[in-house]
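Researcher: Please translate sequence to structure tokens.
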Amino acid sequence: MMVSRLLLRRALTTGLAALGLLTAGAPWPASAAPPSGQPTKAAAGAAKAAAGAAKAAAGAAEAPLSLALPVERATLQNGLRVVLSADRSSPTVAVAVTYDAGSRDEPSGRSGVASLVTGLMARGSRNAPPGEPRRLVAERGGELSAVTGVDRTTFTTALPANELALALWLEADRMRAPDLSAAAFEAQRKEALERRDAALGAAYGKGPDRLGSLVFQGYWPHEHPALGQAADLAGAELAWVRDFHAAHYGPGRAVLTIAGDFDAGEAMELVHKYFDDIPAAPAAPFKDVRFPEQTSQRTAVVRDSAVRVPSILYGWAIPPRAKADHRALELAAFLLGHGESSRLAALLVRDKAAAQSVRVATHGHRGPDLFSIDVRLAGGARVGDVEKLIEGEIRSLATAGPTQAELSRARRLLQSAFVASLAGASARARALGEHELLFGDAAHLNGELARYFAVTREDVQRAVREHLGPTRRTIVETYPPDAEELSPRPRPRPPARAASGKKGRGAQATSGKGSTKARGEAARPAPKAARPAPKTTRPAPKAAQPAPKRKPAKTKKK
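Model: Translation complete:
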């Protein structure tokens, strides 16, 4: 398994280097050894040279690959931003249109409208009836995709290089005149409700939905799911869809990206031909609201008839994707849960056999983002015991930080995943469009690895300590319907407990440490206060029985 992963990484890196998209040395240096059978002096010289080479290779391994994606940019008079990234090595081309619109733009009470608009735009347009775009692309061996996210919507069309005109025509017609008829709307609303039910009805599907609503509680842009709430979808109106489309899907809020085998001059001629006459439209800017800071742990229990073993979801609201701390937390995610030797995978899956799988991720939001840990338990494992182990590893990372060896490994894993994510023309088109939209320049993508490699051990330690603390976390436990909860339900730390006699950082350390015991020492002050009442009921007879026994004993002695 490990050999195949290493070969895959090398193949991806070699492939991108061959395309001229990577300009640094290989990030996985090969070991060198002196040839056998040589004279001792020669062997010593070879060993010395090998040691020097290994040292140089180790230094090179800590330097990131230099990404060199070609980027040309232009802006049409109607406001449409155009990004071109040519690659003549493969006879395919991908066109992506990334709109600055997502579920965060939905008004309260109209959740799911962004998803409805995306579905309607994907179905067809004035000159391509429902189903026609997919048929035209499939007949030519291509692929279509449409994705609605929290803060962006992306349509991607991949085709043979000689079909670039078709891809651009389809996207232009989609932008100019999507099918927003009543019949199309009713069909799409039905499909959206079915898709939502399928997502929540799948095994462990309810947990992420509940986690998001709790982590972003009180912050509407992220609190509600991108799929929409059932009541809002059921009561949706065609006017909502038309208004939302008019406000958010004009050329001024879009980035058109072309990646793959094409000539830049010819491509721009086609872009002008199909997109110039789309009228500019006034864009409705995103109206942000204050994000309420979380000050105590939040918890929930979900019952799921589709699961056989419990799962645990942790979530924290973290800084936006563009912030430096976000990159430190992305590396923390790799340290905790990426690869067999990551901290949680090694502890929970390999050593303790307490979990089937561990997934740790950040979710890439432009606004407040989500850091999540998803653990599926092994049969017989106790939720409370597993939570102690998870929280212990997070506390260790916050107090001692990662070792340099751990950080180097996390950097290499992140680099490998980053390179793999850009292997296809469609993926590169989407990534370049997102960076143009989020950072104002698609070429920003080329410097990403250098920014990740600039993160230090101290940066990771501080970011984990500041953003993944016990009072900022949310825990959602999922159980089969007939299973008992295997951990005590935590409660937010009472103010009286927080205001203990300990001072400054010592009080914070006590809070962090206590919250990791038996699913949270933070939950124990309330039970302690409640103990005198039970002693007057159940324990009372036990306390009364010893007294009569002691009196006769004393009488006998006298």
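Researcher: Any highlights?
Model: Confidence is low (pLDDT under 50) at residues 1-15, 24-44, 54-60, 487-558.
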